[in-house]
Write a structure and sequence with these properties.
The chain has 214 residues and is an alpha+beta fold. 57% of the residues lie in helices and 8% in strands. Helix 1 crosses helix 8, helix 4 runs parallel beside helix 6 and helix 5 packs across helix 7. The longest helix has 26 residues. The radius of gyration is 17 Å and the shape is globular. The termini are far apart.
């Protein structure tokens, strides 16, 4: 089986990079310069007309959307225990990642591209302010969920990888998240995992290469 992960720095393609690594899956990484518009190239749009990463190409067939990718990795590499074994908890894990993808993620994006949400001149800070109020509500829910726990379930799962990216992305926007001490502790625990250290090192190398090429 040939696996190719289309990845871009700081994006949620970080999530399958982590879980594929956790699963011990052999995979090739193809780095996409989204800031340079490479995700809008004709070649990439053939893989994903939604012009987004991640894309996991499995024996030539592209699979998009993080939740679907996580479910596929779990089914293909069950030994990695990337989902809870209990069927009820497994469904809850999918539900949780659905919230990360459809709730938290859209509240992060206005910090990077406020013009996608309102094109009125001078509206950028207002867009960010409203989005970040919603983001704080999201993190309060996650904070309660993580209280007294190391992970979202009884052991590390794909949910932890996904939430790690969400929290890390929020921190990259210089948001004050100090009130969320359980989320912060989770973030710090994630940094201890070799899979996370590997993707962060890869991200640094890619960003440096993109900067030199600019």
């Amino acid at each position: 089986m040939q696996l190719v992960l289309y990845y871009a720095p700081q994006t949620c393609a970080t999530v399958p990079y982590i879980t594929l690594t956790e699963a011990g899956a052999p995979f090739e990484v193809r780095n996409i310069n989204t800031r340079g518009g490479e995700n809008h190239s004709a070649e990439f749009l053939k893989l994903n007309p939604k012009h987004k990463v991640p894309v996991l190409v499995i024996d030539g067939e592209p699979l998009t959307e993080n939740i679907a990718i996580q479910i596929w990795i779990h089914r293909r590499f069950p030994h990695a225990n990337l989902f809870p074994a209990d069927p009820k908890q497994e469904i809850q894990a999918i539900s949780l990642m659905g919230w990360f993808g459809s709730g938290i993620h859209p509240h992060l994006t206005p910090n990077a591209r406020p013009q996608n949400y309102c094109d009125l001149p001078g509206s950028e800070e207002s867009v960010k302010r409203v989005a970040n109020r919603l983001l704080n509500e999201d993190f309060r829910i996650a904070e309660e969920r993580l209280a007294g726990r190391r992970w979202f379930f009884d052991h590390f799962t794909a949910c932890d990888a996904y939430f790690f990216w969400c929290f890390r992305r929020a921190l990259s926007f210089k948001l004050d998240l100090s009130a969320f001490r359980h989320c912060t502790a989770h973030f710090e625990r994630m940094h201890e995992r070799p899979s996370v250290q590997k993707v962060i090192a890869h991200e640094k190398q890619v960003m440096e290469a993109f900067a030199k090429a600019a």
